[in-house]
Design a protein that fits this description.
The chain is α+β, with helices and mostly antiparallel strands. It is about 50% helix and about 10% strand. The chain has 15 helices and ten strands. The strands form three sheets. A four-stranded antiparallel beta sheet has the order 1-2-5-6. It is elongated, with a radius of gyration of 27 Å.
C-alpha cells in the first residue's frame, strides 16, 4: 500500500492495482503475440525487398509500353479474366501490378464469398514489366509477405473470426496504460517533488528494480502505444463498428463517391484507353502511386484511388467518364473532416508506412510492450506468497472508493468496446465468486 495516502485514495489505489494486475494477466499472451508479429510487420519493406525482388523490380528500359498493352499481357496470363484493379508502375524499375479476384467458388451461390475466405484474401497479383509488357510473375495475394504478416498480426491467419482476440488485448491495454499511470503518479511525487526522477530505473535484481523498469518503459513509450492501440481499434471488428457509427452521428464520415454517378452512353464508341485515363488522372492529381478500376457494366466509370497511403495529404478519389474522360467526381484531403484526417495519418503510422523513422519508433514500442509484460510477470512472481498463485485482494470498502464518474466512464467504455465490456462482465463475475468463496472460508491472502 502506498504511504501518505488517505483512506479513500488508498482504497482507489488498491482497486486500480487489482485492475492493472488482471488486465496484465488477461492480455499478456496476446500482447506478446501482437508485439512479436508487429515487429515482423514493421520490417515489411526490408523483407519484401529481399523476398519479392524478382517480381517487384525489373531493369529500366528506354521507353514504357502502354498501360493497355501491360493489362492485355496480364489478362492473357490469367486466361482473359477481368482485373479487379491495376496499379501502374510508379518509380523507375518498378513493375505494374494487376489484381485479379479469385475464381468463382463452386459454393458461391450458397452464401460463400468467392473472393475472400473469412477475411483472408484469395485473389492473385500478376506483375508486368512496364517497359516490355511481359509478365514477370504471378502470386497469390497471401503469398505476399506484407499481406501474410498483416493477417498474422490482425487475426493469427484465422480470418475475421479471430479479430476479436486482438481487440480484447487492445482494449485492456488501454486500461493497463491508464491504471499504470495512476499507480506510478503518487510514487513519482514522493521523489523530492520531482516526479520524473522516478523514470530513471534503479539497477539491481530486486522487485524495486523490476518495478522501476516496468514503469519506465511503459511511460516513455506510452504515448506511442496509445496511438497504436486507438488506431488499431478504429478498424477492429466490433469497436470499429461503434467508431464508425459515432463518426456518422457526428457528421465526421469520409466523403463517399455517389453510387448514381454514371458515364454518358458510349453510343457505339469504345471506352477510353487505360493509358488515356491514366494520363488524365495524372494531370489532375499530385505524383502519387495510383490504383485504377475499370468500368463495370453499362454506364460504368473509371475509378482512380491513391495506392500509396504514406502521403495522407495527397489522398484522392476520382471518377472519370468512360467515354470522354471527363471528371465526374473528386474528393481529397481538403474534403475530409477532422476525424477522418486523424485516422488517415494514424493508420499509416500504425502500419509503419512513413519510412524508417516510423519503423524504428514502432519497433521500440513493440519491444517496450514485451518488456512491460515480462517485467510485470517477474514482479508478480517475486511478490506472491510462496506456493500460491494469487492476486492483490480488494475489499468492498475499497471498491466503494471508486468515484461514480469513474464507474460511468467504465460503462461508456464497455459500450464503445463491446469485447472489453463482455470480458469485464466475466471478470466482475469471477471477482464476486472469489469474494464469496473467501467469505465462506473466512480467510484470504492479501498481497
Amino acid at each position: 500500500m502506498q504511504p501518505n495516502l488517505s483512506a479513500r485514495a488508498a482504497g482507489l489505489h488498491r482497486t486500480f492495482w487489482r485492475l492493472h494486475f488482471w488486465a496484465g494477466l488477461l492480455t499478456a499472451p496476446i500482447v506478446l503475440f501482437a508485439a512479436f508479429t508487429g515487429l515482423l510487420y514493421a520490417l515489411t519493406p526490408q523483407i519484401e525487398a529481399a523476398v519479392h525482388a524478382d517480381v517487384d523490380r525489373v531493369p529500366v528500359g528506354p521507353t514504357l509500353a502502354t498501360l493497355d498493352a501491360q493489362l492485355a499481357a496480364a489478362q492473357a496470363a490469367r486466361g482473359g479474366a477481368a482485373p479487379r484493379a491495376i496499379v501502374p508502375a510508379h518509380g523507375a524499375g518498378e513493375t505494374t501490378q494487376v489484381f485479379f479476384a479469385a475464381p468463382p467458388s463452386p459454393h458461391a451461390g450458397h452464401g460463400v464469398a468467392a473472393e475472400h475466405d473469412h477475411g483472408l484474401p484469395q485473389g492473385r497479383i500478376v506483375y508486368v514489366n512496364p517497359y516490355t509488357a511481359q509478365v514477370v510473375g504471378d502470386l497469390a495475394e497471401m503469398e505476399r509477405f506484407k499481406t501474410w504478416s498483416k493477417k498474422l498480426h490482425s487475426s493469427a491467419l484465422q480470418g475475421n473470426g479471430w479479430r476479436w482476440l486482438l481487440e480484447l488485448a487492445a482494449s485492456w491495454m488501454l486500461v493497463m496504460l491508464a491504471t499504470g499511470l495512476y499507480l506510478w503518479w503518487p510514487r513519482s511525487q514522493a521523489h523530492g517533488g520531482s516526479g520524473w526522477r522516478a523514470l530513471v530505473p534503479r539497477l539491481g535484481r530486486g522487485r524495486s528494480s523490476w518495478r522501476d523498469l516496468h514503469a519506465c518503459v511503459g511511460l516513455v513509450m506510452g504515448g506511442v502505444l496509445l496511438v497504436v492501440l486507438v488506431t488499431g481499434l478504429t478498424w477492429s471488428r466490433y469497436t470499429g463498428e461503434n467508431f464508425r457509427a459515432a463518426q456518422a452521428a457526428l457528421g465526421q464520415t469520409s466523403p463517399r463517391a455517389p453510387k448514381d454517378v454514371r458515364s454518358a452512353p458510349l453510343e457505339g464508341r469504345e471506352p477510353l484507353s487505360l493509358q488515356t485515363v491514366f494520363e488524365t488522372a495524372r494531370a489532375n492529381v499530385p505524383s502519387v502511386q495510383m490504383q485504377l478500376t475499370l468500368p463495370k457494366g453499362e454506364g460504368g466509370v473509371f475509378r482512380v484511388d491513391n495506392f500509396d497511403r504514406s502521403q495522407p495529404a495527397q489522398r484522392l478519389v476520382l471518377l472519370l467518364d468512360a467515354g470522354s474522360g471527363r471528371l465526374l467526381y473528386r474528393s481529397g484531403w481538403d474534403d475530409l473532416p477532422l476525424i477522418p484526417k486523424a485516422t488517415a495519418v494514424g493508420i499509416p503510422f500504425h502500419r509503419a508506412e512513413f519510412g524508417v523513422w516510423n519503423q524504428v519508433v514502432l519497433m521500440l514500442a513493440a519491444l517496450a510492450a514485451i518488456l512491460s509484460v515480462l517485467s510485470g510477470v517477474v514482479m508478480w512472481w517475486q511478490r506472491r506468497p510462496k506456493g500460491h498463485l494469487t492476486a492483490p485482494a480488494v475489499t468492498r470498502q475499497q471498491l466503494r472508493a471508486v468515484p461514480f464518474a469513474l464507474w460511468a466512464l467504465v460503462v461508456v467504455m464497455a459500450w464503445a468496446m463491446p469485447v472489453f465490456g463482455i470480458s469485464l462482465a466475466v471478470f466482475l463475475g469471477l471477482e464476486l465468486a472469489a469474494s464469496q468463496w473467501r467469505r465462506q472460508r473466512g480467510s484470504g491472502i492479501s498481497l
